[in-house]
Amino acid sequence: MNTVLAGLGLTKKYGSTLALDGVDIRVGEGDSLAIMGPSGSGKSTLLHVLAGIIRPDGGSVLLRGQHIDSLGENKLSALRRRHFGFVFQSGQLLPELPAEENAALPLMLEGVARRQAVERARRWFAPLGLEGLELRRPGQLSGGQAQRVAIARALAVEPDVVFADEPTGALDQRTSTEVIQLLTFACRETGAALVMVTHDADMAAHCDHVLHVRDGRISHHSQYTVT
Ligand SMILES: Nc1ncnc2c1ncn2[C@@H]1O[C@H](COP(=O)(O)OP(=O)(O)OP(=O)(O)O)[C@@H](O)[C@H]1O
Ligand SMILES: [Mg+2]
User: Fold this and answer.
1) Tell me: the pLDDT tens digits for 53-77?
2) Ligand 1 pocket residue status of 216, Cβ below 6 Å
3) Can you tell me which atom of ligand 1 is nearest the CA of 47?
4) Which domain holds residue 91?
5) From the CB of 41, is ligand 1 less than 6 Å away?
6) Is residue 109 assigned to a domain?
7) Which of 34, 76, 81, 110 gets the highest tally of CB atoms within 10 A of its CB?
8) For the chain, how many structural domains are there in total?
9) Is 4 inside any structural domain?
10) Pairing mode, if any, of strands 217-223 and 66-67?
């Protein structure tokens, strides 16, 4: 397996809570990985550590073999912007911006001019079923549509890894299935790896691998053959 992202011996403590207790994890190029486990087991902490949002107390995170934990704050946030895409539970779109500009935002932050950024981000609108919604503001979109805009935004920079924390947590079952299918499809199309936290086994089943986390440790790893 061509490892794109690895976490080795990750530990993270909050006071007396051991949120991560020695986690080893590898994500292959273009792989999709679901992280499941009970509430408070450390799933979000693991995702945030892998994404360079939280620094671990121990262990390392490597992106294509490069240690990201030793980078300074500016280099780390530049690396996050260039190499990672994010989809959270409820899109976290900016309410005052139209959908196409929300999707183009990571490119604009990278210095791409607004027009080109919007043009590039809009390429995802048709495959994600968002045609005609380019100028709507988030308040004028359904939950599922807003999550699809968040997917377009996550993919805009052609990231190495897309991180998703409960991306369908606020959606009904049918919309969730549509969003997961589009998310996994879009990651496969761009070759991005996907690391997704979910409570929902049906959503996890759309990923190539499932890691089960309990008390900050990986309790087991299962592999699906379904694609
Ligand atoms: N910023 C923080 N300060 C203190 N404790 C924290 C913090 N973040 C997480 N924790 C604790 O670390 C443990 C793991 O939390 P985490 O958010 O990773 O769980 P989770 O598996 O994502 O849960 P959920 O399914 O409820 O989202 C929990 O006991 C939590 O209370
Ligand atoms: Mg969580």
Assistant:
1) 999 999 999 999 999 988 999 999 9
2) no
3) 18
4) 30-39+73-223
5) yes
6) yes
7) 34
8) 1
9) no
10) unpaired
